[in-house]
Design a protein that fits this description.
By secondary structure, the chain is an alpha/beta fold. It has a domain of 142 residues. The chain contains 16 helices and 14 strands. The strands form three sheets. It has a seven-stranded antiparallel sheet with strand order 7-6-5-4-1-2-14, sandwiched between helices. Strands 10-11-12-3-13 form a five-stranded parallel sheet, with helices on both faces. A two-stranded antiparallel sheet has the order 8-9. Strand 4 and strand 5 form a beta hairpin. The protein starts with a strand and ends with a helix.
């Protein structure tokens, strides 16, 4: 069943400067406008970052330096059901609150390959109904969050220069372009992918067995046990027991350290909660400005009292910052210890099972003869691997019968020419001369467009709208708000500005939210408000960053946002 997200409102809060930004979104068209460097791109990038997309982190360096918290409220639509959700990101922590369900917390998600980030990706993919698998290191794995958002996002930097480049790093996946288009266009080939993954795994195991043939006890417990029982391997048996003891001792030490770190983590989290309560109380007990919150009498306001109050307040601030850093470090250490402990437990468990068999074995002539037989079998592993390799080749041939290259090519060609029709129509609407060479009109064959400036921008605009129109027909594909940053990226004349806005309004997606931004200044012939009235019938929601000052997305927190802030802090505390 198709899943859709609709953004309701977005909130940014900087505790350090007591500043914030808040906006609501309309379900239809939303225009973010303001002066250059006033935060339009920051707003769009911050939304992606809130979901855990770390590719946007380097672009948000300035605002992240302020220690901000991001919160996005959105609606999850699935069939006839609507569910309200909230996602909050505080540096390396993400909190997700679903309607009528407990809060979910992910910590240490700053790196894409961290255990917590992988769990977050799996959770969001299941929530939104996204199951694209991409090939990496010889096997297919669930695609990154960037691939989930890519069809619905045009970045200001590379998005208006190259298709599929709004996020970095996706080219590292083998056959990314083909697999990406196959998934979003409904040319699913899941059976072949899973079968290939199974075959690659078998191949890897066989290669491993050949490489470590001389150390067969690592691959077959029966062979290891037989060698331990054999009289010619007494010395090896003693060495094996010593190795088991050593690993067991190391595991105990790791478990002790893990327990210590967990206790410290709990202590710091509880202390952080208390300090936040203390800080909140200090704010309401200012001896300069406030009365006692209980009896309403004047608080002492001598120089000593005031100095002591601010010293307490600053110490509390400093301690909270210090504890946050400790919390991050300890969580990282705990994650590392969990991995080490799991690996060591696996080793000890394997060793114990073999030692257990060794202990209870009945060393009669029959068992001795059986051991000798197993030892002889270990000498025939090469023959077994040869047979397995022949079987592996048979599986490859079987795989070819399920879906031929010609069948795939036919499906892709069909989608290519449907896209070509949409693309050419949109190029005509934008007064862009079409291409004579089909290499620039067909998705799977598409090359870098040989255009520049405003012509390149309009060409890519036509591409994005044509692709979104095409994937509307794929029933299982999720729908996210379509966000375009800086649709007037180039130095565009007034006629082209109007043409672009008329095109967007005419061809706006019928089933998903549209959010885009453009720069506005007093030098422009028309304001965003005037464009909205003249071209979009006043239907667009206008979101102003700033027209007067640069780098001014955040402003002093107002009373209206105070309640929203308290609710946010309550969720994460």
């Amino acid at each position: 069943m198709r899943t859709q997200l609709i953004y309701k409102n977005f909130f940014i809060y900087c505790e350090k400067n007591n500043t914030s930004f808040y906006t609501e979104f309309d379900e239809g068209i939303n225009i973010i406008h303001g002066k250059n460097t006033s935060g339009k791109s920051t707003l769009i990038q911050a939304i992606q970052y809130t979901f855990g997309i770390n590719d946007e982190k380097h672009k948000l360096f300035e605002i992240l330096e302020e220690g901000v918290i991001f919160r996005l409220d959105f609606v999850l639509k699935k069939g006839s059901n609507d569910e309200n959700l909230t996602i909050i990101r505080d540096n390396d922590f993400i909190y997700i609150k679903r309607e009528n369900l407990p809060l979910i917390k992910y910590s240490g998600i700053g790196a894409n390959h961290s255990r917590e980030h992988v769990l977050l990706k799996e959770y969001l993919s299941k929530l939104i109904g996204f199951n694209l698998n991409l090939e990496s290191s010889g096997e297919y794995k669930l695609a990154s969050l960037e691939a989930m958002f890519l069809p619905y996002y045009v970045s200001q930097d590379y998005g208006w220069v190259l298709a599929l480049k709004s996020f970095r790093g996706l080219d590292f996946f083998r056959n990314f372009k083909t697999d990406y288009y196959d998934y979003y266009l409904g040319i699913t080939n899941e059976f072949d992918r899973l079968k290939k993954q199974e075959l690659e795994k078998d191949k890897k195991n066989l290669e491993g067995r050949i490489k470590f043939l001389t150390d067969t006890e690592k691959y077959d417990d029966d062979f290891k046990l037989s060698k331990l029982k054999d009289e010619s391997f007494v010395t090896k048996s003693v060495e094996y027991i010593e190795s088991y003891k050593k690993n067991k001792d190391e595991l105990i030490q790791i478990e002790k350290e893990y327990l210590t770190k967990c206790n410290k983590l709990t202590f710091i989290e509880e202390r952080l909660k208390i300090l936040r309560v203390v800080k909140k109380a200090l704010k309401t007990e200012n001896p300069v400005e406030n009365d006692c919150p209980t009896c309403r009498q004047n608080l002492p306001s001598s120089i000593e009292d005031i100095y002591e109050y601010y010293q307490d307040f600053n110490n509390t601030e400093s301690e909270i910052a210090k504890l946050k850093n400790e919390l991050k470090e300890i969580k990282g250490a705990i994650n590392s210890l969990e991995i080490a402990m799991s690996a060591k437990k696996e080793i000890v468990s394997t060793d114990y099972s073999i030692l257990h068999e060794y202990k209870i074995a009945d060393l009669t002539f029959t068992s001795w003869l059986d051991n000798k037989t197993k030892i002889q079998l270990s000498n025939n592993i090469l023959s077994q691997i040869g047979e397995a390799t022949i079987e592996l080749n048979k599986k490859y041939k079987e795989l070819e019968a399920f879906k031929t290259d010609d069948e795939l090519r036919k499906e892709r060609n069909n989608k290519d020419y449907i896209f070509k029709g949409y693309f050419k129509d949109f190029l005509d609407e934008l007064n862009v001369k079409s291409f004579d060479n089909e290499l620039y009109l067909l998705l799977y064959q598409m090359k870098i467009f040989p255009k520049q400036g405003v012509e390149l921008l309009k060409t890519l605009l036509a591409y994005y709208f044509a692709f979104n129109k095409l994937i509307e027909k794929t029933e299982y594909v999720h729908i996210l708000p379509f966000m375009m940053d800086a649709v007037f990226k180039e130095d565009i004349d007034e006629d082209n500005r109007k043409l672009i806005l008329e095109f967007i309004f005419k061809n706006k997606p019928s089933n998903n939210q549209l959010i885009f931004s453009f720069a506005e200044s007093k030098k422009n012939a028309k304001t965003a408000s005037e464009y909205n009235k003249e071209i979009m019938n006043g239907e667009a929601k206008l979101i102003l960053t700033d027209l007067a000052n640069e780098r001014s997305l955040l402003h002093t927190l107002n009373d209206k946002q105070q309640e929203y802030l308290q609710e946010t802090l309550f969720l994460i505390e």
